[in-house]
């Protein structure tokens, strides 16, 4: 019983959780979502550029895209965040002030764009080449055909993977705390950690983890739903209609066949 009591007091102390809950909700959760959403938007734009460069026939575009992707996918996320957050701190102060918040977003955006670029590239290359050839036959140039036909189809196919990447960004946003955020800029992990240090109890960190789960678990199920839907497509009740059509056509042909025999 003593072990269970200590376990509950260490990880599930209700008073500690209730004390830090307002900060986690109004400061930590808001900043986590802002960092994740901003990094995802920038990452989508840069990722599309990297993907288009990566499938280009020009080596001058394809090779830099490959190097960029290998670099930011190969480095640990925390190393990239520290290099950018600390290496460009003086330059950032003249633009953003003393806050490292924007540098954290930029670092996460560069990491995300490398992964998103590969997702986009795989989606675009999965589109049948006949789509592009048909567009060229209709008089479209390469750029117009890619922008209006090929890329939209490729993006639709990789939506589940993009949502998965957003989930990864939400979790990686906790690494931004290494840059030393201001009190008003702390994300979920930093708020929970500070409260755990002040109280000597891990319950605030557990509550921060619960907040992460509230964001990521529904998104995970959403990914599974979209993935299943894109794989199977909508099931439409076309079989009875086609069957009736075939029967109608058979009835229409039968009298003609009988008449010709007689």
Automatic annotation (TrEMBL):
Tree of life domain: Bacteria
The keyword Nucleotide-binding is annotated on this UniProt entry: no
Transmembrane intervals: 33-55, 67-89, 101-120, 166-184, 204-226
Localization annotation: Cell membrane
Membrane topology reported for the UniProt record: Multi-pass membrane protein
Broad class of where this protein is predominantly found: membrane
Family from the record: Belongs to the binding-protein-dependent transport system permease family. HisMQ subfamily.
Protein name per UniProt: Amino acid ABC transporter permease
